[in-house]
Amino acid sequence: MFSGFCKLSKSYFPLLNATAKKNSINVVRQSSKFTPGQSIRLQKIKEKEPGEVIKWMLLVIPVGSFGLGCWQAYRLQWKLELIDRMQATTNSSPVDIPHDFHELDNMEYKPVKVRGEFLHDKEFLIGPRSLVENESLPRVGSFVSDPKKNQGWLVVTPFKLSDTGEVILVNRGWIHQGLRSKERRQASMINGEVELTGVVRLTETRSPFMPKNNPVKGSWFYRDLHQMSAYLGCAPVWIDARGNPEPPEGWPLPNQTRVNLRNEHMSYLITWYLLSAFTAVMWHRYFIKKLPLV
User: Fold this and answer.
1) Is 32 a domain residue?
2) Is 251:173 a contact under the CB 8 Å cutoff?
C-alpha cells in the first residue's frame, strides 16, 4: 500500500508542479502586460473620456442654434419678398373677371373689373372686424384712432354679373356698429347696373378660437366661400370692392383688403443668434479656458 502511495505521489507532484509553473507563467505574462504606472494612466484616460464626450455634445447647442438663426434669416428674406409680390399684385392694373371661375384660384389679390347689379335683399354682415386703413389712400379726419370706434362689420352683398348672370359676393366695405341697420344705410344701396373694381380673395380658414358661422341666425364670422355660396345660391367668388376712401355719410368704407402675412422670423432670428452666442461663450469659458461658469 505504501509502495502504491509512493507511485501515486510520484505521478501527482510532477503534475502539480507543472500546473504551478504554468500558473506562475500566466501570472507573469498577465503582470507583464499591466504595470502599475500603465494601469493608473489607463484609469485617468477612462476618467477623461466621459468629459470629452460631454464637451463635444454640448458644442452642438451653439452650432445648431447658429444654423437655425441662418435658416430664419433665409425665411425672413423669403417672407418679405412674398409680401412685396402680394402688394405688387394688389396694386397691378385690373383685368376683366374670367368666365371660368376656376382661374381665380391662381389670382388671389389680383384686381378685377365686374359689371352688374347688387342684390341688396340678400345682403349680410360679417364680423366683427377692425377697419383696414390703406396707407396709399389716406382718409382725412379718420376716427380710426379711437379704439372704441374701430370695431365694425363688413357689408357683403351678392352681385349679379351682367354678361353671364352669375352671382358673386362683393365686400362693399366696412361700417361701424352704429350703421348695422339697413335703414341707416339706404342712401348707399344703389340700384341698377354699375361697374366696379375689386380684389379677388379666396376662402378663409377658421382660426381655432373663432366661432363657427351660423347662416340661419345670420351670424358670419369668417369668409367660408363654399358655405356662403351653398346657403345663398351663388358662385364661391369673393372680391373686396375698391373705391373712394371718403365715401358719403352712411356708405361702407371700401378698400378693406388686408395684405399681410404672419412674419415673426426676425424675432426667431434674434433668439437663435443670442442663444448661439451665449452658449458659445459659456462653452469656451468652461472647456477651453477651464474657468468656472459663475
Assistant:
1) no
2) yes
The three grid cell numbers given for residue 127, joined into one nine-digit string: 364680423
Interval 250-271: pLDDT, tens: 899 999 988 767 788 999 999 9
What's the DSSP call for residue 287? I
Q: Are residues 275 and 196 in the same domain?
A: no
Same-domain status, 73 and 186: no
202 shares its domain with 74 = no
Look at residue 230 in the predicted model and tell me its pLDDT: 95
Domain shared by 267 and 217, yes or no? no
Eight-state DSSP code of residue 211: P
CB atoms within 10 A of CB 159: 25
The DSSP line for 138-153 is --TT-STTSGGGSEEE
Check whether residue 286 and residue 200 sit in a common domain.
Answer: no
Q: Which domain holds residue 74?
A: 49-93+260-293
Per-residue pLDDT tens for 31-52?
A: 445 455 454 454 554 555 557 7
Distance from C-alpha of 67 to C-alpha of 74, rounded to nearest angstrom: 11
Quote the radius of gyration of the chain (alpha carbons, Å): 40
Same domain, 218 and 126: yes
How many angstroms separate the CA atoms of 282 and 58, rounded?
Answer: 10
**Model pTM above 0.70:** no
Average pLDDT over all residues of the chain: 81
Secondary structure of 212-252 as H, E, C letters:
CCEHHHCEECCCCHHHHHHHHCCCCCEEEECCCCCCCCCCC
Is residue 157 located within the same domain as residue 236? yes
Q: Which residues contact 172 (CB under 8 A, 6 or more apart)?
A: 118, 155, 156, 157, 188, 241, 252, 254
- Domain count for the chain, please give it: 2
Give the β-pairing of 124-130 and 95-96: unpaired
